[in-house]
Structures are given as structure tokens and as C-alpha cells.
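Thread: Modeling a multi-component assembly for a lab meeting

Hi all, long-time lurker, first post. My supervisor asked me to bring a structural picture of a complex we are working on to next week's group meeting, and I have zero experience with this. I have the sequence lines for every component (632 residues in total). Could someone generate the structure of the whole assembly? Inputs are pasted exactly as I received them:
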Amino acid sequence: SSATASAHVGVSEGVDLSVNQDEPWTIFAHKKPNDGWIVYNPKTMRPPPLSKDTKHVKLLSWNVNGLRALLKSKKLCIQQLADREDFDVLCLQETKLQEKDVEEIKESLHGYENSFWTCSVSKLGYSGAAIISRIKPLSIRYGLGIPDHDTEGRLVTVEFDDFYLLCGYVPNSGDGLRRLTYRITEWDPSLGNHMKELEKLKPVVLTGDLNCAHEEIDIYNPAGNKRSAGFTEEERESFETNFLNKGFVDTFRKQHPGVVGYTYWGYRHGARKTNKGWRLDYFLVSECIADNVHDSYILPDVDGSDHSPIGLVLKL
Amino acid sequence: SSATASAHVGVSEGVDLSVNQDEPWTIFAHKKPNDGWIVYNPKTMRPPPLSKDTKHVKLLSWNVNGLRALLKSKKLCIQQLADREDFDVLCLQETKLQEKDVEEIKESLHGYENSFWTCSVSKLGYSGAAIISRIKPLSIRYGLGIPDHDTEGRLVTVEFDDFYLLCGYVPNSGDGLRRLTYRITEWDPSLGNHMKELEKLKPVVLTGDLNCAHEEIDIYNPAGNKRSAGFTEEERESFETNFLNKGFVDTFRKQHPGVVGYTYWGYRHGARKTNKGWRLDYFLVSECIADNVHDSYILPDVDGSDHSPIGLVLKL
DNA sequence: CATCTGATG
DNA sequence: CATCAGATG
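Re: Modeling a multi-component assembly
Sure thing. I ran the full set together rather than chain by chain. Output:
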């Protein structure tokens, strides 16, 4: 089909782009309303792997939408993801764990002896983030250090030799945008400022579900979602003000300008099959290491959650 | 095996009675602690069907533990139960429906154009009862006529030519027996008195989940359940005082003295496979029609709920 | 170990 | 249309 023909990289030519049935992991850009954007094939778009001689680290990040359910589903246990992707560090968001669940899961992570978990204490089974690492960090920190923002288990920071890694789950603005103000006037600025503070010491990498599709290219139906949580003007501006304009680089967009690459598809209406998605998950890095990014990518063939994992290969 | 050998009717002879794997619908009495009770085989224990010349009615009753889930499971839609059992009337308890769910389900009941539903208005998705009938009743009544006891959708009464039929779901006494007092001092007496009032006009049939295992023979582990909701001394006494001593006859027990026949098995620990059950579901009838009962029976092979249906064939 | 709701996304 | 919790049985 024409869709298959354009699977590599090229400008959509008015064909009815959709998922390639032969290679279901291949996500095409859609024809409308984003006509003319570049088709993104996550497999062929990836650069060749770095040789062992080039010192680098491989980071993955995944909003798992409930880690217990994911592990029960057996769609993909963390060990299988490790075998397949050979990551050094895995960042998780929306683990929805309670503190009592953590120990059992920690013990199942063979090869990743360093893992750091934070859970919501204000609402059980809500939010939650973790960093699982093969590399032992120099220091670990939970939350922003602001008690008011630290009851929901939304941030884990680890310090490695060459950079700080933050795994964050930015608050969803919610139905009726009831939490929009909190999000843009409190959480986002606090997180941005915290990153600037850390950056005085070492370069910073922020990954996670930032709950914002930055530009029109980052969402399936921009016109219809102008007042939807995650695509309001306020959130998009906040994303720029608090992160991009502070010097943090959206690594996927830098590597793939004009390319559609979603990381989230709502469960409703089979949105994933028809690629009606959003790009909500990011790797942002300090400007000073932006050129060290070898590859910033999406793994849309990994399911088990409404988000797919994303990856970053960073040269050190 | 000896278990199979004793499958018909006989006294347990110290064999380890359990479910017959060849006929999984066959429920045996257990060896301990009820050694010596009669083994009940629900298939062979049933009398031959009445001829068409003998005027009679066939009633079924079933605590479905959530009707929407049952219908979704496709284990047994009501149409299939109708095809198999050819009942005239089906009484349901714990439908857990909301009023908004009723219309759609009513329309799916081909051949049973008369159906009467009551739902809890105080707690959504809780309790709920219904009578589904091929025969058009002379009158219908919901609840006891006592507003305080009628917010939970626990009782539907229909009047036929020859008897009143009550479909009831007696309140569970709950964890910690927190509702025991309400149950035995308010609900049970009100229901018993209501039945006596109706009986002045016509014979009465009460069916449903009466949430009480009357005697030791009616529960797998009597010693261990003396303070469990459904087997407390208080509930058992209330069952006698308010129903049996008022002249209503436990039709299953009359037909099968000394026979174990459970109608409920908790979902936990595979209680149904090992027949660790309770008899909580009954057909009680006015003394004046007790001899009209042709058959009072259990259908333990019907699953889809933690209760099995029970049946009554009543000569008119 | 099931059902349900209601919150959340 | 998923996850979770908590109530209920």
C-alpha cells in the first residue's frame, strides 16, 4: 500500500496513513489534521548502536499506569524489557504502588540492585514514581523538598557521576481543569527552579510523563483539544517558560524536527490502533549535554500501558 | 471410587466424599464434621416431571451476585436458563442494578414479558431484587410498605391466582455483625408479619437469599462459624421465630430430611470445588400448600455466581 | 475472591 | 477504557 511505501521517512503524500498491519509497531503520522508532517518509523529512524568503546548510558522511561496490573498481565515483565532493551536505568511513572507493595517488587529486579521508589501518601494507589538502575547513584532524593508538593510521590532524583537524573510525573490538570492552576503556578515552576539549582552542580536530565503535548504536531487532534488537560495554552506556555526557556532541550524534537511521535494513546475508542495519540513523555536535558544525545526515541510496540516507553542514549 | 458408588442416596460410610469428577454437578455431603448425613445427588434425587395434565407452576430463584457481570460472563444468560429449565417464574436477588440499567435488561427477556425490578436507592449497585414471569400477576408490590426498610431494593411481591410470591434478599449481618440487630429485630419480624398478613388472603411463597443457614446440617463447618454472619444463634433463632414457627415450611428440608444441600459457596479458597458451602437460599411456603410441593431442589451445576439457583415445582 | 461504586487518567 | 481504592458479601 502507499502507507507502507512511505514507511521509511518522507512527507505524507495524501495517502490514508494508519498503522501498518505487517509491522504493527510502526506508527505512521496521520493525514489529517497534520497533513504534510513527516512520517516517523521508530525502527528505521534509529541510529546504529554505539560501540562499547564509546562511553554512554541507556535510559528508559515509562508511565506504566499501575505497575501491579502490568506485572500481572505478563505482557512485559521488567526482566523481559531488560533482556530486550538492555537499559542501564529505567524510570517509571504512575506505578500506583503503596509503600507496602515496594519490597516484593524490588526483590524481583535481578541485575538492577539500585531502585528508588516514591509513593503517594495522600491518596493511596495514586501516582508514584521510581528509578531502577544498574548503576549505583551517588545520592538519591525524593520530591522537590517542598512538603506541600511532595505527598503524591511524583519525583525521584538520582545523582550519577556525570549528571542528575530526574524521574517526574507532572500533575494532570484533571477533568474541568480543576488542577490547572496548581500545575502551572506551583508544580511546574517549582520543578523548573529545582532543575536550575541542580544544574549549577551538574548537567540535568528530566524524564517522565510531563502531561503536556507541547505543540500541534504532538497531538492527534489539536483543534479539538484546546481545552483538554495536557494541551491547554496555559500548560503549553508553562512547559516553555519553566523548562524549554530555562535551557532544557526536548531531545526527541531536536533529533526529529517535524516528525510525529506519540507516546500516549487513551484506552478509549481503540486510540492506539488508529494512532490517535499524544506526545506527553519526554527526555529534557541541559543545553550543555544536548549534543551528547546519541538517540532519543519511542518504543511504541511495547504495550501493557496506555503510554509507551521512551529511550535516551547519552554519550558521556 | 467409593464416592461414586455412594453417589445416589445413602449414608456416608467414612469415604472421603468430594465432588465427583465425572459428574461435576454432583455435590456430595462431606465426611467431616457431618459424618453420617445423607449424600445428596441433585440429579437423581429429583422426582419425575409432572405431566401436563397436572396443573403446576415451576419457580426458580437465584442470587446472581451482580446481574450485569453475570450477563457479560455469558456463562448463562437468562434465555439459556429458560431453555434448559423451562421455568414459569425466575426470582433474582443481588442484581446490583441501578434503575437506569433495568430497561435494557427487561427488553432482552423474550417470553417473559412480566418482570418487576427493585433497586437500592440508598446505596447504588447494592442489593436489588426482581421477579421475571411468564404469567401475568394480578398485582405487584415493592418493599414491605415501611419506608425505613424499603430503600435497599430487597423485596418484590407478586400476586398470582393461587398464591402470593415474595422474592426477598434478607440483609446480611455484615462484618463484625454490625447489622445483626437491625436484621433480627427489624427486618425479619417485619417480613414475617407481612407474610402473615398476606396469608390471610392467599397462601404465601417466600423465596430468596434469606442469609441464614438454619441448622448445623446447612453449613460446611458449623463449629467454626458460630459467630459468622448467617450462622449466629441469633439469626438462626430469628429464622425459626419469624418464619418457621409462624407456619412457613422449609420445603427443601421437608422433602430431604438429613440431606446436605448447599446453595452458596464463598469465592475464597475454591470453596465450591470442595463443597464447603452453606444453604442460604430457600423456598418457604404456607403450611396449607406444603403438600402441594412436588419438588424443592438445587441446581448446583449452574455457575456464574457464588450462589446456585434453587427450584420449586408447586401443584396448583 | 468476587461484585459494585467512585476517583482518576 | 483502563488503573486503583474501599465497601460489601
